[in-house]
Amino acid sequence: MPGSKTSGLTHRLLALLTAAALSACSSVKPWINQPKVQTSAAEAAATTTAAASASTAPPAPAAAARPVVVAVALSGGGARAAAFGLGVLQGMKSAEFDLPDRRTNLLDEVRLISGVSGGSILAAHYAAFGDESLSRFEDDFLLVPFEGQLLRELLWPNRLYQLSSPWYGRSQILAERLDVLYRGLRFADLRRRPGAPELMITATDLTTGAPFDFTAEQFELICSDLDSVPLSFAVAASSAVPLLLSPLTVRNHAAHCPGGAPRVLHEGEPGYRAQLLHRSAEGYRNATERPFVHLVDGGVTDNLGVRLLLDRLVANGSMHANFADAPRGSIRQLVLVTVNSERGLAERIDSSDRVPSTSQVLESLIFGAGARDSQITLGILNDDLRRWRQELARTRGQPDSPFAADAQIHVISLSLHDERDDRIRDRLLRVPTAFTIEAQDVRELQIAGRRALHSAPSFAQLQEALASLRIEPAAKQP
């Protein structure tokens, strides 16, 4: 019948159009990192000439003395972690103290900010915009229906077209949404911003299960350039929860690196942690075997975002080696603030003899195992801290030491569990791990972050130490 022929023709045309669309879409590829630019022979000669001329020029000015060096690590936990972390940053901004030449505050002395998953969203925003984040981040991200917008966008026809590509996944859409939040900035833009802290975003290498951090050192291993990486890509990789979001991919260019892939790890303590770090780094040198690195949520390996930082400090050897660029006797206070925004379990499966449901199993594996891993990380941190304090007591004030005679190390570990009001604590610990949470929770989490900082005994001890900084340190007697 004519109608049947027409209907059959229509179906065939639709099938052909669909196949053509999918075929065309297979060529859609998202951003991926490029190899480091090779230096031409002429450029190399010019560099050599410039270096020779520089040898007769006056020496470069010494690095600026920084009496207080602060690092902040923001854990995963979606918007809950970002809101709690924002409250901590606000509390640090209000913690003012005097140096011999100026008045400052704890936040302005931050030299490194690291983030994992939800914490990375805030870490990148603060590294990009500084104090603007304290007033803008709530309106820019926390109070925006970010998750609903992301879900609606997944159903747009052009997105469905892109998602049919084997190179394009759900996390690419997340990265594009985040690119609006970060105004298209890349890591190179952070280096150009005066006073910007170093940013360290951590994801997980899906193949090895090892942390993969967005740092210049890590990108040297794959012979690529961190400066070209969009902040949105790094944060999306760190936030790519397995199964819910797709992995993001970087290209390993070590096989084509001029002179071979560099060895960037220093020879330090030959312990097990240093060996693991070295083995992980060496794994990227064989780019023929591993030409691509697929990345997922950084919380899979370390939800606190501290473990890799500690391992690198240990691998580099002594405290002196880690601060070799600092002027002698310039550092008086070293401060690490860790912000743990892990949520509590919604229910205890061990209170019943019933077979746990799939959702209960997933929640227990994600939050229960993650909480245990965080406790292990904090235990490692305490062991490292004890060793560093012993070294500092032996070497501070010596002629070749970057540490002044009164130098101290402070670690301030903050958690949602620190909230003293039982009712508020129980509610905030149950705020879901999502990109969007209730406005009331956003504001109460910020209050809880400020309160956790100001009520921490370790913070009170730090304040006492900071109060003495207005006086120049006396030289340590031999």
Short description:
By secondary structure, the protein is an alpha/beta fold. 47% of the residues lie in helices and 14% in strands. The radius of gyration is 25 Å and the shape is globular.
Keywords:
478 residues; alpha/beta; eight-stranded mixed beta sheet; 18 helices; globular; disordered N terminus
Describe the structure.
- With about 475 residues, this protein is of the alpha/beta class.
- About 45% of the residues lie in helices and about 15% in strands.
- It is built from 18 helices and 10 strands.
- It has helices at about 1-25, 40-55, 80-95, 120-130, 130-140, 145-155, 155-165, 170-180, 185-190, 215-220, 230-240, 270-285, 305-315, 320, 360-395, 420-430, 440-455, 455-465, and strands at about 70-75, 95-100, 100-105, 110-115, 200-205, 210-215, 250, 290-295, 330-340, 405-415.
- The strands form 2 sheets. Strands 1, 4, 5, 6, 7, 8, 9 and 10 form an 8-stranded mixed sheet that branches. Strands 2-3 form a two-stranded antiparallel ribbon.
- Helix 12 (about 270-285) packs across helix 13 (about 305-315).
- It is globular and about 65 Å long.
- The protein starts with a helix and ends in an 11-residue tail after the last helix.
